[in-house]
Design brief:
The protein is of the alpha+beta class. Helices cover 28% and strands 11% of the residues. A hairpin with a 7-residue loop joins β1 and β2.
């Protein structure tokens, strides 16, 4: 790895289920392959209700499992998804609440 200036460094943390995570120190060009597998961040302008609805419509199964998929929305973890489901009263365990059955308001 070539030395890079302090402003060009990024720290990425990745964890695998039930394993210890790891940290990679690399320049930006070395991280591109990691970023391409992640969906938009929750507050990115590109993540619209329509885009999320379309992505969920293609994913059969429980809504919680779909929302935890980092390729759909990056950065959503178990606590955020649980909080969101509680606020919207969308519960994963209800038999009619599937990710491909969510509708847009209006």
């Amino acid at each position: 790895m070539n030395p890079v200036s302090r402003t060009e460094r990024k720290v990425k943390f990745q964890s695998a289920p039930r394993l210890v995570g790891w940290v990679v120190l690399a320049d930006r060009s070395a991280l591109g392959h990691l970023d391409c597998r992640l969906g938009p961040e929750p507050f990115e302008r590109s993540l619209t209700a329509e885009r999320l609805h379309a992505a969920l419509a293609r994913r059969p199964g429980k809504i919680k499992n779909a929302l935890l998929d980092q390729s759909l929305v990056a950065g959503l973890g178990d606590i955020y998804v649980d909080e969101g489901q509680g606020r919207t009263r969308i519960y994963s365990e209800h038999p009619r609440t599937r990710s491909d059955g969510i509708s847009l308001p209006g």
